[in-house]
Amino acid sequence: MEMSAQSPVRQLAAVHDLSGVGRTSLSVVIPILSTMGVKVCSLPTAVLSSHSRYEGFHFTDLTDQMKPIIEHWKQLGMAFDAVYSGFLGSPRQVSIVEEVIDTLCRDQSMVVTDPVLGDNGILYSSVNKEMVSEMRRLVRKADIITPNLTEAALLLGETYPEETGDNKMKEWLLRLSEAGPGVVVITSVPQTGESKRFSVMAYNRRGNRFWRVPIDYVPADFPGTGDCFTSVLTGAMLQGDSLPVALDRAVNFISYGVRATLGYTYDQNQGIILERILNRLNFPMPVSSYEIL
User: Is residue 55 part of a domain?
Assistant: First the structure.
C-alpha cells in the first residue's frame, strides 16, 4: 500500500555517507536538519567504520544498493522539497543522484550539492579524476553549491590559488554559477592581507549580488564542519531565510561549535561536540556580520 506523499514538515533526501566514528556526513546532517524542523530521508552512499582521517578505516561502497532504495521510495510515493548531496562513494553515483533530482522532487524543490572532492589543495584519498569530472556534471543540476576553495579550483580546472583577492573570487563565483547553480558559496577563503582571517564568499544570480561573511581564525581543525555548515545553510534556506542571513547563521553556528569544543581535552578528529550546541539552532539570530561586495 502506498504511503501519502504529503508531509506536515519539509522533506529532504540526504545523499551522504555514514561514518560510524566521527561527527561527519549523515551523523551531523540528520540531527541538524531535524532540529531545524526538516524531515531527513537518508540515501547512504557508503558506510565507513570512521571518517577518512582515521587510518585503517573500513569502507563499503553502496552504489549497487542505492537504485533499489530509490525504486522503493517511488513505490511509497515519496516526494521531496529538497535534495542535499555530499560525499559520493563512486563516480557512478552521480547519475543516481540525478535520478533522485529528476524523479522524486516536488515542484520548486531545492537542490543543494556539496561537491566533496578535497581540501588544502589536494584530493581526498578516496577521490579520483573521474569523480571530479562527474561532479562537474552534477553541479549543473544544483540550485546551491558549497565547495571549499580546493573544490572550487577543481571544478573550474584551476590550480589552488596563492592569492584570493575579491576580484579573483568574484570571477570564480560567476564562472561556477554559469555552469548551472544560481547560488554559489565558497568556504574557507583566506582574506588577502589579513593574517589568520578567513571568510565565506557567495554569489546569488538573483539580484546579481556578492556576499561575504568573515570568520575569525581559531587554532583547530575539526572534520565535519563543512557538513555542519551546509546543513545549517540548507535548513535556514528551507525556513525562508535570505542567503546572507542563512550564511550568517551557518558561520555563527560553526564558530560557536569550534569554540565550545576547544575547551576540552579532546580528540579533534571526533569533530565538534554537536550534542552540546544543537539547541542554539533555535536561538534568536545574533547581530549579522555579512558584507555586500
Answer: yes
Q: Are 17 and 47 in contact (CB under 8 A)?
A: yes
Report the CATH number that the domain containing residue 281 is assigned in CATH: 3.40.1190.20
Cα 5–chain centre separation:
26
Q: How many residues does the chain have?
A: 293
- For the chain, what is the domain count? 1
User: Is residue 63 within 8 Å of 47, Cβ to Cβ?
Assistant: no
Which tens digit of pLDDT belongs to each residue from 180-238?
A: 999 999 999 998 766 678 899 999 999 999 999 999 778 888 999 999 999 999 999 99
2 found inside a domain = no
Is 19 in contact with 8 (CB distance < 8 Å)?
A: no
Q: What is the pLDDT of residues 29-45, one digit of tens each?
A: 999 999 999 999 999 99
Q: What is the pTM of this model?
A: 0.95
In a domain, 4, yes or no: no
Residue 103 has pLDDT above 70, yes or no: yes
Q: What is the mean pLDDT of residues 67-76?
A: 97
In terms of residue numbers, what domain contains 219? 10-292
Classify the phi-psi angles of 188: left when phi > 0, otherwise alpha if psi is within -120 to 50, otherwise beta: left
